[in-house]
Specification:
The protein has 258 residues and is α/β, with parallel strands linked by helices. Helix content is 49%, strand content 16%. A hairpin with a 2-residue loop joins β2 and β3. α3 runs antiparallel to α11 and α4 runs parallel beside α5. It is globular, with a radius of gyration of 17 Å. The chain starts with a strand and ends in a 7-residue tail after the last helix.
Amino acid sequence: MTENNLLLTEINEHVLTLTLNRPKVNAFNLELITALQRAFKQAESDPQARCILLTGSGGVFSAGQDISEFRKVENLSYRKHLQKSYNPLILQIRRLGKPVLAAIQGAVSGAGLGIALACDLRIASEEARFVVGFGGIGLAPDSGVSLLLPALIGLGRAQEFTFSNAPITAQQALDWGMINRVAPAGELGEQAFAWARQLAAGPVQAMGLAKRAYNQAVLKDLEAVLDYEAHVQEIAGAGAEHREGVAAFLEKRLAIFQ
């Protein structure tokens, strides 16, 4: 099945595979975000879908938000955009009563990183690279990154890689607990599906209840954090640093922040 070709869906052996399919880097626009929201909503009530496997096409997981889409919108409110798009999507993933496994290849950054971190488990290609990304265009982290990243790798590391925008390698991500497993690039799909199939054959209801317990114990402030991220992003989005960051990104030059 397809969702306007932007999101490819397939169910096999009780594993629902959702593949981001927006070349070249699977950057999100509102249509893709909406398709993903709809797919997770349907997965909740589909008894055939016992595990969700989220991945990307073309050797890339996702580069995050498509910045060029924002340039088409007059008087864009970042707060309203987040409240409509990524915030409900992150909450959907965390509240879904079934395991969600992300298979990450290539680059993942920005909102794409937030979505990957919101998944329950992560397996990455040894060639994967994780970039916080927001600072490069003069923005603050959103999509749950401000909570999920330090929860997984610690506040000091999270701030270092947010401020520097340097990539985190797959091996670093594994060593620091950001991901659960690393696979050779050519074996990622096979290993990810085998793991998802194993999850689907397990006590899915109990997994869902365990997920609820972990949400309460570790991520009980997630909804409030998402709302606050939207607040600070509204401030950042109106600033000169963001304007310069976007201009530099589109002009393929280094940004000059003053």
